[in-house]
Design brief:
Blueprint (H helix, E strand, L loop, with lengths): L2 H6 L11 H7 L9 H14 L8 H8 L5 H8 L5 H16 L4 E11 L9 E5 L4 E15 L2 E10 L14 H15 L3 E6 L1 H4 L2 H9 L4 E3 L22 E5 L5 E5 L1
Parallel strand pairs: 1-5, 5-6
Antiparallel strand pairs: 1-3, 2-3, 3-4, 7-8
Length: 258
């Protein structure tokens, strides 16, 4: 619409365009934002996240997308009246629609990132996979979907250490968070052909019980020193690891050691 006409008629202005495919993708979420400035910031953040800058901080994103101040992006994230829950629901619905009933592989993994300062919630000294040691940072349990060699995000939940809990929070282990994610994906309608996870989840009978309850096939890692409690009268037999080939539903071979 012509800008001058919008001003004369006191009509809300259109959001500033960015890149064609960003504008097209973000248009599916436009109705979730009451203010055009909020919708613009939503598009700017997407543009910044796919840019070539190494540090995806708000000041750096503001520079690369041409925003005068990072304060507007910070306001959008911290105080702008939009619902994270509604946005997540819309994204999952669009993902489910794009899959059109096709089955996916779900990968469960946790990610830890260093974080300085005391302003961000749920930051504590804990094991961070990104640096391979205990350090101060924040950890999330994530679920990714895989379909025809395309990987896409599904859900994540923040791990909240006991010392960082707010009065309204409930402590949950990473295993419990992963189990909740599986339950939510199944209830949302995703068709899951296989669940993959590392030894943190492969060593957990509670997580395996969740997968078995929903009759989901799984391949979970275990530690090299994995032990099993057995009756005293039962003999223990240890076989050497050997290769075998599993054929997926789409006839792709995959080698494993068992």
């Amino acid at each position: 619409m012509d800008v001058e006409r919008q001003i004369l008629k006191h009509l809300p202005r259109d959001a500033q365009p960015t890149v064609g495919f960003i504008d097209e993708y973000c248009s599916s979420y436009k109705d979730l934002f009451n203010e055009v400035r909020g919708y613009e910031c939503f598009k700017y953040l997407h543009l910044g996240m796919i840019s070539s800058i190494k540090r995806k901080s708000l000041p750096e994103i503001a520079k690369v997308v041409g925003v005068n101040s990072a304060q507007s992006l910070h306001h959008f994230i911290a105080q702008s009246p939009w619902s994270v829950t509604e946005l997540r629901q819309r994204r999952l619905l669009l993902t489910l629609k794009a899959l059109t009933g096709k089955k996916i592989t779900v990968v469960i993994d946790e990610t830890g990132d260093r974080k300085k300062g005391k302003v961000t919630d749920y930051v504590a000294r804990q094991y961070l996979g990104s640096v391979g040691k205990i350090d101060r940072g924040i950890v999330t349990v994530n679920a990714y979907g895989i379909y025809e060699q395309v990987t896409f995000p599904l859900l994540f939940k923040i791990f909240k250490p006991k010392g960082t809990l707010k009065p309204e929070d409930q402590y949950r282990t990473k295993i419990e968070l992963a189990s909740l994610i599986i339950e939510e994906l199944v209830e949302f309608g995703f068709e899951i052909s296989l669940v993959l996870a590392d030894s943190l989840y492969g060593e957990s009978s509670a997580f395996i019980q969740t997968l078995d309850r929903y009759k989901l096939p799984w391949v979970l890692a275990i530690r090299s020193n994995h032990g099993v409690l057995m009756p005293s009268h039962q003999r223990v037999r240890a076989n050497k690891w050997c290769r075998f080939e599993r054929i997926w539903l789409d006839n792709r071979p995959f080698e494993l050691l068992v």
